[in-house]
């Protein structure tokens, strides 16, 4: 673990969660403060990580110094898959986050890993379609729908990420993100009680924007 993560994390024994992933075993639950590095691009890959609470962003630094966020992971989700021996991206906690470090499955456990990897691949492909084919307001609408579905289809969507994070994920500036959120609010499709909370007032209208 990195020095900055060690300075902001601690481990305790916690009971195993009952999940459909047969490779999950009782492990130490590791805590990360907000904005702590979990692993870095280029480092040797190792275990998988399951988020017990909090949220993680996965990103890459481009040659010109810009940041491209490629994924957000929320509570209950697993990340850390790599095709090679080294991490292709950085992983950082966005808020206070508890991670369970998982042993990589072997033998008859591998189908579970394959299913998780395939879900991650499908989500990455959908993200590419959103960024490549949709206009700004459609991208924001698709992002909000994705967050809503991953949080149990609740009308109240919690956003652990900042507007800058969202912009780096959707390929737009923070001003464009804010402007299109304001547009959706003006049209009565959403409400914005706080910067980290969005209320979906008209989910059907939001879906029509992404059709």
CATH topology of the largest domain: Jelly Rolls
Low-confidence stretches: 1-22
CATH 2nd-level architecture of the largest domain: Sandwich
Categorize the overall geometry: globular
Main β-sheet: number of strands, strand sense, barrel status?
Answer: 5 strands, antiparallel
CATH superfamily of the largest domain: Jelly Rolls
Work out the helix count: 6
Mean pLDDT: 81
Distance between the termini: 43 Å
| Number of extended strands | 12
Which percent band covers the strand fraction? 25-35%
What is the H/E order? Answer: HEEEEEEEEEHHEHHEEH
Helicity range of the residues? 25-40%
Entry summary:
By secondary structure, the protein is α+β, with helices and mostly antiparallel strands.
Explain this structure to me?
The chain is an alpha+beta fold. It has two domains: 3-109, Sandwich (Jelly Rolls); 134-210, Orthogonal Bundle (Arc Repressor Mutant, subunit A), CATH 1.10.10. The chain has helices spanning 3-7, 110-133, 136-150, 163-170, 174-186, 203-210; strands at 11-13, 28-32, 37-39, 48-53, 55-61, 67-74, 78-79, 90-93, 97-102, 156-158, 190-194, 197-200.
